[in-house]
């Protein structure tokens, strides 16, 4: 952007501040807002608040997992440690949310597993069988074992083993054994705990898996029967926004978010959006800002939201505080346009309102600035829509000439959604015709389309004209700066998260190693790239890696060869299997290498400050200090991709490229919890294990090696020994090579510089010096000594590194020469300017100056010195705009010389170069509220050639506001007293404020008759200002009137001829018509007096009334009747029927036609409800039942439905509401109802007394009980009542099975009820085989017969069940043997096998 355009931009910004109908705003420049709005509003943590809470939740879930679950999540954590690579495909939010779902599923599985009941195993014997398979043990059998609080279950022998490990369940000790041994002293091992599933299967608690699949879907199945017990619920951490946190956390976040200022909320929203991106997305956004590439839509959004944030900050921090009246709608509003096009304005308004309210902005905006990517003929075209809410204006700015007629480019359908978004705002109800403005397109339209449209949007936001020119290269650099800042912030998130997950991995590995769980493997390991192969640290790293491999081999052997290890060590303990080989492999002076670029431990989040250990070493409190901890991490460098190529800039400082970003590397390294050499106060782990335990890998017996397993062990040990020797050999070779290349430390450096000689000036303020090095020690390299020996010039040490070279002298010796560029205290290297001369004006507010350079330092180029030497003009130091070498003529031809000449274009403090306006001339009105003004431009001398351009960019002050001309033209001006004519620039302004003389008004309102229900017609004539008669019809439609206190636009306008009294001519005026439907009580019909009629149905009465119709509405009386309510019994009701009837008015000879309404009222009409006469009680009809009757009282008018009313009218008997059992007609309209009640009739009930059982059972499971029935009503049959009367027998109410009279004539009832004393049992049942063809004999002994019972009567009725058939004895016998009498029952059972 040239200097002239910059001055015009500042003036235009000041003018907009004066004409704005809001509070005054400061002058904004491109991306020059206060950067204090960029301060991170969340906390000191590098992460957004959402990610901080997600990591806290992850840490809580991780701490709640069991050791077995850590085996599953460890590979996932190892992957998350390398988020720099993982985030190339998935965003950070997706990765963390997926990991949170996995941890949540594992936590759910843990909770559900803990609810599986713990049981104790007891053997199952025939005498004490449980009621169900694997059911609880009987109390008699349970008492034989040692008491335990754990529930016991009886399991049959063939099921008494774990289906996973196939190990038999252990029986608890017997109670008798515990008493003989003197009680449990704690030395006896307790059985392994068992858990019982709901399917009945029992397993060892340690053998019961928590899941069957590695993907942790959480489905649990019984290992025996595959019965599925649960599916863990889906667990969301970040995806639905706020569902992942607790109610307290959510309340805390809401309180925090509501306290944020609007620009801080905008910042939080941008960071939350960035968490769901991946690093590839940000690389694409960043690369798209390079020169020659179209800017990506998301990169444009990042720059725009940051610019809008600073705009909000600037407005709200003004003094006094400003108002944010611009609403930013980003390029992501395709969904909004789609909803609007589908007519879903409510959802669209919610989307638009959401961003405004979420940012905490108040009231409603005045303007909407929308960035939109429009597709025209299958090509993307960027446009800017400017919605002006108060006046309903819509302007679309574009750069494509083919869009001159593009109806779908102008989103007029947005207006309904905008009104729904801000219903209380002052939005014009009649939007104007949308305007399509073509802005001058950039040179490379396909590349700079998005950048150019961003400049237009920025001008609208800053209050500048949309057509105001913008430096596209500078704007593209600003976009790069914003995207690169977000890219660097994202990289810091990746580094922080890599450290966080590295700590989790270290804790996970420590816990798994401590518990004895097998390692999952080394995983991917990368050699440190900055480590030289001959560096002894690299050899130590290789040796350490070999040691790690050997550790895993040992662990695998320990798991697969438990018998051998138990033979050599006594038991398999993972802690003792650890790195016995580390001490001989690692050198004493070297520890396993770590990444040299690691930050100090105290600088990392979560790092301890105690002894400088890594976070993974200090976070695991469960790892022993005598055991190594192997932890792997991945570090991500601070920047990922190489910076995109920047565009060259015309300014002097534009050559400085943005900060380059280093290449992205991933490194893996190991840590141990202590150094391998012995530290003070700490013993070596190898020495400790050697002194306390037997060596783990002792030589097995010879016979074992020749078995199949022994041969495998021999091969494994050979692999271990060979790998160890190779690692040690590599270490020795690398150590010797490194020491050969790096000899012992040098002696003290005593060299110094002599023969320091200054040379010519190299550049402004810089001179070259040379010197010779002397006093070099013999054991020092010459070049190294040259670079490390300081030089002192002007009493100061030169900080720059010298350029060293070896020079051969004439004597044959070689010396070291050093060269420096000294840029301090070199006053002779500064050129000097002569007098400054002012020239003519060259542009608006810009004057040209020139000066000659009197002194140029020796050795420097004149043009270079001219360009780099500033001069002071108006108190500012400025570099020349142009430089040239000219010939300066002196006295005589021999005194001519070449000199440097500099020229400056100064665009400040040059009031003499600013044009002004002559007197303003007011003209006639040109449109509604708009008047034309004219003025001639007074052009400074020298600028006459650009008078037309100056006219368009020079504001004038009209009615206290600074306004640019709407149009400019060159006209010939005739000056009085001058024969010649001059050509001047004339500006024209269309002023649409403070022009009350150009606003039309209405004449007196005339009230007309009613036109519809509650609506009246009003008329008025429009008073048109002079000059606007041609658009009177348009002004009529857009000029409101005040009726009943409301401002309303006309519903209809028409041009009519008006006859004025006293004027012979007629005038054509615009007449407006209004249909007023409020505050018009005279147009509302009403009802006459209500007339009550007779009843028409049960509880319903007919009412009639005539409608009083307002004058003018007689033609729609029938319609008004149906829509006019009446008030009956306090309720508002519409008529059920309407009819037109002829009404005869007294005193009037003519009859009128009126509308009559009818209502069927079915409430509060007690006179239309039938009732019953008093009830008459009759005699008892059966046990507990009595008959009643009553006569029906029918209301007048309902006699024809008396029978229906009788059957549907209830009565209350004994507090119960009953309908008649039947109705009896007594007369023409007289009916009687009859009822029979079977409750609360104690007078109709008889009573059983003297209930007695027989002494002996009648048969198997049958005994007779008798009772006497007393208090029988006289009107009832005694025997029938006996069968109906229930009696209580053995806690159950029963009716007798037999009724009769006893010897005394009393009614006696008999019951035949079974009981346990009448149920003898069969035991010792034997099959005696066939006794005849098709019959076999079954015989069983009868037992449990009562003392006084007839055994034979019971025996012959004992049933025997055989294959779903019941048989009775064919014979019963009593047999005596050895003074013991036994009874037997014999059954004949059909059997087809008996021939």
TrEMBL record:
GO molecular function per UniProt: zinc ion binding
Positions of the RING-type domain: 162-226
Region of interest called Disordered, as start-end residue ranges on this chain: 589-703
Transmembrane segments: 714-733
Keyword match Metal-binding: yes
Gene3D superfamilies per UniProt: Zinc/RING finger domain, C3HC4 (zinc finger)
Protein's name in the database: RING-type domain-containing protein
């Amino acid at each position: 952007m040239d200097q002239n355009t910059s001055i015009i931009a500042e003036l235009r910004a000041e003018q907009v501040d004066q004409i704005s109908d809001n509070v005054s705003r400061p002058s904004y420049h491109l991306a020059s807002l206060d950067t204090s709005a960029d301060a991170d509003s969340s906390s000191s943590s590098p992460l957004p608040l959402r990610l901080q809470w997600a990591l806290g939740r992850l840490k809580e879930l991780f701490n709640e997992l069991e050791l077995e679950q850590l085996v599953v999540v460890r590979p996932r954590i190892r992957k998350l440690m390398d988020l720099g690579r993982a985030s190339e495909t998935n965003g950070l939010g997706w990765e963390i949310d997926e990991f949170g779902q996995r941890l949540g599923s594992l936590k759910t599985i843990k909770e559900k597993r803990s609810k599986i009941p713990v049981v104790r195993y007891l053997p199952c014997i025939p005498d004490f069988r449980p009621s169900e398979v694997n059911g609880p043990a009987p109390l008699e059998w349970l008492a034989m074992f040692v008491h335990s609080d754990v529930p016991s279950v009886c399991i049959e022998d063939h099921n008494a083993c774990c289906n996973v490990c196939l190990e038999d369940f252990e029986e608890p000790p017997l109670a008798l054994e515990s008493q003989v041994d003197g009680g449990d002293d704690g030395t006896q091992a307790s059985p392994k705990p068992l858990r019982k599933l709901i399917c009945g299967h029992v397993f060892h608690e340690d053998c019961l898996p928590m899941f069957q699949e590695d993907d942790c879907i959480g489905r649990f199945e019984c290992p025996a029967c595959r019965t599925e017990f649960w599916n863990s619920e889906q667990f969301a951490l970040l995806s639905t926004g706020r569902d992942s946190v607790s109610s307290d956390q959510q309340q805390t976040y809401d309180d925090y978010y509501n306290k944020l200022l609007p620009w801080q909320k905008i910042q939080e929203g941008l960071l939350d959006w960035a968490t769901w991106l991946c690093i590839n997305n940000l690389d694409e956004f960043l690369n798209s800002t390079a020169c020659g590439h179209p800017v990506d839509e998301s990169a444009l959004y990042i720059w725009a939201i940051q610019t809008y944030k600073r705009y909000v900050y600037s407005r709200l921090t003004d003094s006094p505080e400003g108002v944010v009246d611009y609403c930013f709608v980003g390029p992501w509003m395709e969904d909004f346009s789609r909803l609007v096009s589908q007519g879903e304005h409510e959802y669209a308004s919610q989307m638009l309102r959401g961003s405004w309210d979420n940012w905490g902005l108040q009231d409603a905006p005045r303007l909407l600035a929308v960035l939109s990517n429009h597709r025209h003929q299958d090509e993307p075209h960027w446009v800017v829509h400017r919605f002006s809410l108060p006046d309903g204006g819509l302007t679309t700015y574009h750069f494509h000439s083919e869009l001159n007629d593009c109806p779908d480019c102008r989103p007029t359908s947005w207006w309904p959604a905008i009104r729904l978004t801000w219903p209380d705002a002052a939005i014009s109800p009649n939007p104007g015709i949308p305007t399509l403005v073509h802005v001058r397109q950039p040179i490379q339209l396909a590349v700079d389309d998005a950048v150019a449209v961003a400049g237009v949007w920025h001008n609208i936001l800053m209050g500048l004209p949309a057509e105001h020119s913008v430096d596209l290269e500078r704007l593209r650099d600003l976009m790069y700066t914003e995207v690169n800042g977000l890219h660097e912030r994202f990289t810091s998130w990746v580094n922080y998260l890599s450290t966080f997950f590295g700590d989790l991995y270290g804790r996970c590995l420590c816990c798994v190693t401590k518990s004895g769980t097998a390692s999952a493997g080394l995983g991917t390991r990368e050699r440190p790239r900055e480590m030289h192969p001959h560096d002894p640290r690299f050899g130590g790293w290789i040796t350490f890696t070999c040691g790690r491999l050997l550790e895993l081999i040992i662990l695998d052997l320990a798991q697969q060869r438990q018998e051998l290890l138990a033979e050599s060590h006594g038991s398999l303990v993972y802690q003792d299997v650890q790195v016995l080989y580390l001490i001989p492999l690692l050198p004493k002076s070297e520890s396993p290498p770590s990444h040299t670029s690691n930050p100090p431990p105290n600088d990392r989040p979560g790092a301890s400050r105690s002894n400088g250990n890594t976070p993974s070493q200090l976070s695991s409190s469960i790892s022993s200090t005598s055991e190594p901890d192997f932890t792997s991490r991945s570090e991500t460098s601070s920047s990922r991709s190489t910076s995109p190529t920047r565009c060259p800039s015309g300014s002097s400082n534009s050559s400085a490229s943005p900060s380059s970003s280093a290449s992205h590397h991933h490194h893996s390294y190991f840590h141990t919890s202590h150094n391998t050499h012995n530290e003070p106060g700490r013993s070596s782990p190898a020495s400790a294990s050697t002194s306390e335990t037997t060596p783990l890998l002792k030589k097995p017996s010879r016979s074992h090696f020749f078995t199949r397993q022994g041969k495998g062990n021999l091969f494994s040990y050979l692999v271990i020994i060979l790998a160890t020797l190779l690692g040690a050999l590599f270490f020795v070779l690398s150590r010797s090579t490194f020491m050969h290349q790096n000899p012992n430390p040098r002696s003290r450096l005593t060299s110094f510089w002599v023969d320091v000689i200054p040379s010519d000036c190299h550049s402004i303020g810089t001179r070259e010096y040379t010197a010779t090095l002397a006093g070099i020690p013999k054991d020092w390299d010459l070049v190294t000594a040259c670079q490390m020996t300081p030089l002192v010039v002007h009493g100061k040490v030169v900080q720059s590194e010298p350029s060293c070279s070896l020079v051969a002298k004439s004597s044959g010796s070689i010396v070291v020469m050093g060269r420096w560029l000294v840029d301090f205290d070199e006053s002779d290297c500064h050129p000097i300017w002569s007098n400054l001369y002012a020239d003519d004006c060259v542009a608006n507010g810009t004057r040209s100056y020139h000066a000659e350079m009197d002194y140029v330092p020796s050795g420097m180029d004149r043009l270079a010195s001219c360009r780099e030497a500033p001069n002071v003009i108006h108190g500012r130091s400025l570099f020349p705009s142009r430089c040239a070498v000219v010939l300066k003529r002196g006295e005589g031809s021999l005194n001519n010389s070449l000199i440097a000449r500099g020229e400056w274009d100064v665009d400040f403090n040059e009031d003499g170069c600013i044009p002004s306006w002559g007197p303003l001339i007011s003209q006639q009105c040109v449109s509604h509220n708009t008047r034309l003004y004219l003025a001639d431009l007074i052009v400074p001398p020298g600028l006459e050639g650009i008078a037309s351009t100056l006219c368009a960019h020079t504001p004038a002050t009209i009615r206290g506001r600074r306004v640019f001309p709407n149009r400019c033209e060159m006209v010939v001006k005739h000056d009085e007293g001058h024969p010649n004519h001059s050509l001047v620039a004339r500006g024209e302004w269309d002023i649409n404020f403070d022009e009350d003389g150009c606003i039309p008004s209405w004449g007196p309102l005339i009230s007309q008759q009613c036109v519809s229900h509650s609506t009246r017609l009003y008329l008025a004539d429009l008073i048109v200002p002079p000059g606007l008669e041609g658009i009177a019809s348009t002004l009529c439609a857009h000029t409101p009137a005040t009726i009943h206190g409301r401002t309303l636009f006309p519903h209809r306008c028409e041009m009519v001829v008006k006859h004025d009294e006293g004027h012979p001519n007629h005038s054509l005026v615009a007449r407006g018509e209004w249909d007023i439907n409020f505050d018009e009580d005279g147009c509302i019909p009403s009802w006459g007096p209500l007339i009550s009629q007779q009843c028409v149905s049960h509880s319903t009465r007919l009412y009639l009334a005539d409608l009083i119709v307002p004058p003018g509405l007689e033609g729609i009386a029938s319609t008004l009747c149906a829509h006019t309510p009446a008030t009956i019994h306090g309720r508002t009701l519409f008529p059920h029927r309407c009819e037109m009837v002829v009404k005869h008015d007294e005193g009037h000879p003519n009859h009128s036609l009126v509308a009559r309404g009818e209502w069927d009222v079915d409430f509060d009409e007690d006179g239309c409800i039938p009732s019953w006469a008093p009830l008459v009680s009759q005699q008892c009809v059966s046990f507990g039942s009595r008959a009643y009757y009553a006569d029906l009282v029918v209301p007048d008018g309902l006699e024809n439905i008396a029978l229906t009313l009788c059957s549907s009218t209830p009565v209350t008997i004994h507090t119960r509401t009953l309908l008649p059992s039947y109705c009896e007609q007594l007369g023409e309209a007289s009916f009687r109802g009859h009822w029979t009640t079977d409750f609360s009739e104690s007078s109709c009930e008889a009573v059983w007394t003297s209930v007695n059982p027989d002494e002996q059972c009648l048969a198997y499971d049958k005994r007779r009980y008798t009772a006497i029935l007393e208090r029988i009503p006289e009107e009832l049959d005694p025997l029938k009542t006996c069968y109906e009367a229930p009696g209580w027998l053995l806690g159950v109410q029963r009716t007798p099975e037999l009724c009769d009279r006893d010897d005394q004539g009393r009614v006696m009832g008999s019951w035949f009820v079974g009981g346990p004393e009448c149920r003898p049992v069969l035991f010792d049942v034997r099959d005696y085989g066939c006794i005849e063809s098709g019959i076999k004999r079954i015989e069983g002994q009868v037992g449990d017969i009562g003392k006084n019972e007839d055994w034979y009567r019971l025996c012959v009725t004992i049933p025997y069940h055989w294959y779903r058939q019941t048989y009775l004895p064919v014979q019963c016998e009593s047999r005596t043997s050895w003074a013991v009498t036994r009874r037997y029952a014999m059954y004949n059972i059909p059997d087809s096998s008996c021939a």
